[in-house]
Every structure is written in structure tokens, then in C-alpha cells.
Amino acid sequence: MPVINIRNGLIKDISRDRDNTLVTVTYSGCQCDRRNDETVRLVVGPRTTVLNRNGAVISAGELRVGMTVNASFSSTMTRSIPPQAVAFLIRIVDEPRRENVVVGTIVDMDRRNRSFTTISDRDVSSIIRFNVPEDARIIGRNGSQIEFSRLMPGMNVRVRHADFMTASIPPQTTAIEIRVL
Questions:
Q1: Do 3-94 and 101-180 share a fold?
Q2: Of 38, 100, 123, 159, which one has the fewest beta carbons inside 10 Å?
Q3: What are the extents of the domains in the chain?
Q4: What secondary structure does DSSP assign to 118-164, as a single string?
Q5: CATH topology of domain 101-180
Q6: Contact (CB, 8 A) for 114 and 157
Q7: Which CATH class is domain 3-94?
């Protein structure tokens, strides 16, 4: 079976089902084919070898969005957009710097100003207000994108946010991605 090898692909999305991890990767296509970027969804199953930067075997669960990878996968692909192919080998080449992530419970919503406040582990010193721009990704429990209006007090969320935080009380920052847990 012919194999496709890519170098320096960027992981754009990861989803999981019962048996497999689906890893969406963009990469530079062949110079001869006039397309700059290609996208493929790699089906990472129990027979796929996943290696860290040092070449040690790791689980697919350790793959993260933003990682740069080299990959070998089947040339037999679905005709979906993006096409899907079975991955044989994925090796991490580079990792993004650590994300700024907070896991907490929404305690207050300000729908007019597109913001909400969280608290973690009932610790008052962990309260943060997140401003949510229109382009922020909001992902529901089932993994699909949802509207800001669907967020409610009492929901547990994982918020990936900007590097900065104001010195106000409570501190404020910009949410990049919100995932309902």
C-alpha cells in the first residue's frame, strides 16, 4: 500500500471517538501541484505509532492542537473534505509554548458585554472575568461549536486565554477558546 509522508504539518484540530483519535493536520503540498496548503484528517488508532520529540512512544492523547508533526499515512483516503486517511506514524517535531488555561465554574454572565466570570475550586482568589470576542471558539460538551448565548452560570468550562491579565479585581483577560466540560 503506498504511503504519504509529510514534514512539518500543523495540528489544527483533535477529536476523539470510542476507538480512534482524529487529528486534522495542514501541511505544504508538493510544489508541482499548485496548491499551497493541504489538509488531511488522520485516523489514529491502536496500530498507529505516536512518538514524542525524543522518539519515545506516547499515547495519541498527548497530541495537542498547535504541535508540528511529521506523519506517514495511507494514500487511500476518503473523498470527504478534508479527506481522511489511516495514520501509521506521527512524530512530534515541535510543541507550542504552554497554554494559558483556566478550568472553573461560570458564576456570572454579562451577555451585553460578551463576558463571564469563573471561579475555580470555590477559591475566591481564583475569580477571573473573561471577555469573549466574536472570533473566540466556544465548544459544547459534544465537541461541536456553540453560540455564546448557550453559556450559563453553573457550567464547568476550560478556558484558553490571552497571555495578559489586568491588575483589576477581579482580573480580566480575553478568552480564545471556551470548552464546556
A1: yes
A2: 123
A3: 3-94, 101-180
A4: EEETTEEEEEEEEE--TT-EEE-TTSSB--GGG--TT-EEEEEE-S-
A5: OB fold (Dihydrolipoamide Acetyltransferase, E2P) (2.40.50)
A6: no
A7: mainly beta
pLDDT digits (tens, 9 = 90+) for 1-13: 689 999 999 999 9
Amino acid at residue number 153: P
Q: Does the model's pTM come out above 0.70?
A: no
pLDDT tens digits along 102-115: 999 999 999 999 99
pLDDT tens readout for residues 117-171: 999 998 999 999 999 999 999 999 988 999 999 999 999 999 999 888 898 999 9
Q: Residue 18 pLDDT > 90, yes or no? A: no
33 DSSP 8-state letter: G
